[in-house]
Amino acid sequence: MHHPGSGVQKIDAGFSLKAVMAITALSRRQLVYWRQTGLVVPSRQTSGGHWRYDFTDLIALRAAKRLLDSGVSLNRLRRNIDALRKFLPNARHPLTELSIVATGEVLLVFRAGSAFEAVSGQEWILPVAELERDIERLTGGADSPVQGELFATSGEAAGTAGGPPGGQRRGRRQAQGQP
After folding, report:
1. Domain range for residue 81?
2. Which of 1, 109, 139, 143 has its CA 20 to 30 A from that of 131?
3. How many whole angstroms from its chain centre is CA 53?
4. Would you place residue 176 in the very low, low, confident or very high pLDDT band (cuts 50, 70, 90)?
5. 137 shares its domain with 117
């Protein structure tokens, strides 16, 4: 049974508080506090009034916990989530609908091929190719990583997955008489 305007379904299915504590390693106190303050509110409630979490709620809880574990304070996380709800009114559940990454003092949100700061909404442009050109220009190309090497897995960087991504570049340097 769905109560209009509340956003909460009255149903006896879903994950109990005890189950959610076991799944997420969050304490009862954290879960209750997050519900009371609106950070993550369970989507369901039993006919007896007990809260039940659905799978999407579990994703939101894990995302919040991961951000907290990476050093984001609860207050900062809450400010960022509130700002995202204002900037993106269609994103009713930012922790499950958006990719949020902590980068030092900034929470970056990745959505639809762009990155922006959660609080200000300012778009971030990551000019990796431009940075690579600047490094090559300043160093003369010696030992400068190429974009593919920066994002390669350790096996790829070691050349075990078809050779290093910068292999063609090294070949060009050698063909030009450079080491």
Report:
1. 72-125
2. 109
3. 21
4. very low
5. no
Q: What are phi and psi of 100, to 5 degrees?
A: -115, 130
Shared domain check, 107 and 57 = no
pTM summary value: 0.62
Q: What is the CA radius of gyration of the chain?
A: 23
Could you report the per-residue pLDDT of 92-102, keeping only the tens digit for each? 889 999 989 88
Name the most confidently modeled range: 19-28, 104-113, 127-136, 150-159: 19-28
Residue 51 pLDDT grade (very low, low, confident, very high; cuts 50, 70, 90)? very high
Same structural domain for residues 63 and 40? yes
Looking at the structure, do residues 133 and 118 belong to the same domain, yes or no? Answer: no
69 touches 77 (CB < 8 A): no
**How many domains does the chain contain in total?**
3
**5 plus 58 within the same structural domain:** yes
Beta-strand pair 9-10/99-103: unpaired
